[in-house]
Design brief:
Elements lengths: L1 E4 L2 H9 L14 H15 L7 E5 L5 E5 L2 E10 L2 H13 L18 H8 L13 H21 L9 E8 L8 H12 L11 E5 L3 E5 L4 E5 L4
Parallel strand pairs: 4-5, 5-6
Antiparallel strand pairs: 1-2, 2-3, 3-4, 6-7, 7-8
Helix pairs in contact: 3-4, 5-6
Length: 228
């Protein structure tokens, strides 16, 4: 995929012709589907693009963006646990009245295939749920670990460095409704040491279906995701 746009109207017209449909996990969803959906929605939402822009889909990093005279690399990843992703596939295929209780798939807890099959066959909510700020704390801890992991990849010799290096994370963790302002403040505290640890991403973006959060060494911000 390659996008060249001379202004925002031009960009929106180009994006409207791109297939951003993401199939269910049980219907062949691929990394590429997620990357295209994420980058297209990111482009419609960020407000600091300098035109003309050229975006090329590649690898290490996943995207190369030239925005005006700025040279930017964008690495993409999805934040989801393997166990929960596998459970989603099985639950979609089951097509019955079972309930997928995400609280039974706590972040960091490993489950084998037999355990997952048992959990997705339940007909009612049986999990422990969450109390207080636990969802926000789990969210911040998991996202920080993922940022650290991707930063190790950034530091490898085979990863192409650019003037600015962005990390775009699509967050799909098995967590309930979050107070994202509170969660972002917790992650911001964890990131204080990150910004001073050598080669790091210039900006980290965390994307949900409805929000786009951005973090840099100075601050964080939250805005609505302009879905296309």
């Amino acid at each position: 995929m390659k996008i060249q746009a001379y202004n925002r109207s031009d960009l929106l017209s180009i994006l409207s012709d791109i297939d951003v449909h993401v199939p269910l996990r049980s219907e062949g969803r691929s990394t590429k589907h997620c990357e295209i959906w994420s980058i297209c929605n990111w482009l419609t939402t960020v407000s600091n693009l300098i035109y003309p822009i050229t975006l090329i889909h590649g690898d290490k990093p996943d995207f190369h963006l030239i925005s005006g005279d700025k040279d930017i690399g964008i690495e993409h990843t999805e934040a989801i646990t393997q166990e929960y992703a596998h459970a989603c596939v099985l639950h979609e295929k089951a097509d019955d009245d079972s309930i997928l209780d995400m609280s039974l798939f706590p972040i960091g807890e490993k489950k084998n295939k037999h355990e997952i099959r048992e959990l997705i066959s339940l007909k009612k909510l049986t999990g422990p749920g969450w109390e207080g700020d636990v969802p926000e704390e789990e969210w911040a801890s998991d996202l920080y670990k993922r940022i650290e992991g991707k930063t190790l990849k950034l530091r490898n010799d085979d990863f192409e460095k650019h003037e600015k290096n962005y990390l775009l994370i699509y967050e799909n963790l098995p967590l309930p409704y979050l107070d994202y302002t509170k969660a972002c403040k917790l992650l911001e505290l964890k990131l204080k040491v990150y910004w001073e640890s050598g080669v790091v991403f210039t900006t980290v973006y965390i994307q949900t279906d409805y929000l786009l959060m951005s973090f840099n060494s100075l601050c964080f911000s939250i805005c609505k995701n302009n879905r296309i």
